[in-house]
Amino acid sequence: MTVHGLLLAAGAGSRMGQPKALVRDDDGLPWLVRSATVLLDGGCAEVTVVLGASADEAERLLADADLDLTRVHVTRSLAWQAGMGASLRAGLRALADTQTDAALVHLVDLPDVSADVVRRVLAAEAGPGALARASYDGTPGHPVLLGREHWVKVADAASGDRGARLFLSVNDPVLVECGDLASGVDVDEPVGPTTDQRPAQ
Questions:
Q1: Which domain holds residue 168?
Q2: How far is CA 191 from CA 14, 186, 198, 200, in A?
Q3: Considering its fold, how many domains does the chain have in total?
Q4: Alpha carbon of 96 to those of 9, 33, 90, 156: distances in Å?
Q5: CATH number, domain at 86?
Q6: Which residues are bridge partners to 52 per DSSP?
């Protein structure tokens, strides 16, 4: 199975105070670069990054990173302000003319999700009909594996900030437990003692 990583990184990050694509770890590595690397190291043949807010600056981060840029592509969601659904649709449109069997959808604001998580999710299902997602201590999260056969229905159902949530709620993806590898928390605010963190659904 050929899998193309689809990294959603278009939001403005209003609670974070800046677009999450521009946030850096304590060691200075941008979340954007870390997430793209995780997808590649975990087994995705290529990665397409969906940008929106501060897209020019985010593209420069990718260009300056130690990445194989022949395997990392950028597309822009012109309607990114409408939410994750618009970014997901833009990403799936960008993959429509590729020969990939499945898209592995990941979010830029999950900094502790590792390549091991990606490998485990990819090992759970195969082919254009694949449908699986990581779970963390039983709570569904990301990344989400969408076989090509599902893309049209996923795009049709995606709206607002729900992404593929509505489609997944009625189509029973295989849940792949990864709580031993990561927390899968969606970091929406600068990390502190009162930060609200939860698995990103």
A1: 3-199
A2: 14, 11, 13, 16
A3: 1
A4: 19, 24, 10, 14
A5: 3.90.550.10
A6: 54
Residues 140, 142: Cα–Cα separation, whole Å: 7
pTM for this prediction: 0.91
pLDDT digit string, tens, across residues 65-122? 999 999 999 999 999 999 899 999 999 999 999 999 999 999 999 999 999 999 999 9
CB 19 within 8 A of CB 56: no
Rounded distance between C-alpha atoms, residue 193 and residue 172, angstroms: 35
End-to-end CA distance of the chain: 25
What is the pairing mode between strands 102-107 and 72-76?
unpaired
Q: Helices marked H in 43-162 — which ranges?
A: 55-64, 84-95, 115-124, 151-157
Using one digit for the tens of pLDDT, what is the confidence trace for 152-174?
Answer: 999 999 977 777 888 999 999 99
Angle at 27 between CA 26 and CA 32, to 5 degrees: 85
Give the up-direction half-sphere exposure of residue 114: CA atoms within 13 A in the CB hemisphere.
Answer: 8
